[in-house]
Amino acid sequence: MNVPSTRQPIHVTLPKKPKARAFRRGAKSVLPILLGVFPFSLVLGFAMKETGLSPLQTVSFAASVLAGTAQLATVQLYAEAAPGILIVLTALTINLRYAMYGLSMEPLVREKSILTRIFYAYIMSDQSYAFTMAEAEEHPSEQHITWFFLGASLVLYFFWQTGIGLGYVLGSVIPSWLPLDFTIPLVFMSLLVPHLKGSKRQFAAGTAALASLVLVPLLPLQSGLLASILIGMGSGILYEKHTKASKKEQKESKS
Amino acid sequence: MRYYAIIFGVALGSLFIKSIFLCGFSSHRLPSWITENLDLIPPAVLAGLVAPALVYAKTPEGLEVYLPKILAGAGAFWIALRGKNVLYTILAGMILLGIFSRFPG
Question: Best of B30, B45, B77, B87 to disrupt the A interface by mutation (most A CBs within 10 Å)?
Fold first, then answer.
């Protein structure tokens, strides 16, 4: 009889702990995209092995930074014996988007200490950022949005590191016909859709997409992505100004 | 040692980039045209990441337009807009790419 009585309170008390609830919601929110993220980490681990990195080199890189695309680019450039400065600059350029993530997430973490924020910055990923911002918009009254962020980030972090390790150890088992690298844009695509509400955002996303198609192959050092992002945002701002102005004109001509 | 110097640069630089605004100045002090348009960051960044990856394939000569990816990407995007489940989007994209890449040319 003891067993059910000790189990029951867990289920009853959980809803009363809003932090734990937010954490769990965050953790659950990212589960579906693990199907896309996990293969990417496998590919990264495999690439590290192929490049000839030692286990210690792999682990220290995996542990020191969480930034998938930049990590893959670093490994590729290192394998091609590119100059060190160029490798670092490329990785940092790819990661410049995180500065903008930080900028838009800052209002959510305003009450946290600097050390906590640096920890958040360390575990922040494209996915945990996108899900947290979508959650904050859907439930503006959520008091513990940082716990949601922690839940999402830590689950992703765990599977990301496990995937790198598995990819390093078992890399050659992955069949080469499986287009695993294609899962990443698919993950980004499903992250994008919830952010396409409203014509201003749609316009910004559309312009950024078109600009990236032209600029990414053209500009050196992965700077095409950053340029496209700025063009997309700028055009979204101009678009809103323009529609506001034309609405004003309509109103004035009617009156 | 060269390897660890690179890793150190990437790690420290990334942490700096990731935390500069998250820790830095409060957005109260930012001009309003920035704070009012922060919501444009996720769609612009994600669209910029997605589009080239769905259109180009990496070849030794550089990036080349690759039709199977475009078709599979369009199909997956249609699914993403319809159903909300991320799983279906990824599965649809992978299966479609598997099918389309089998066509010659």
Answer: B45
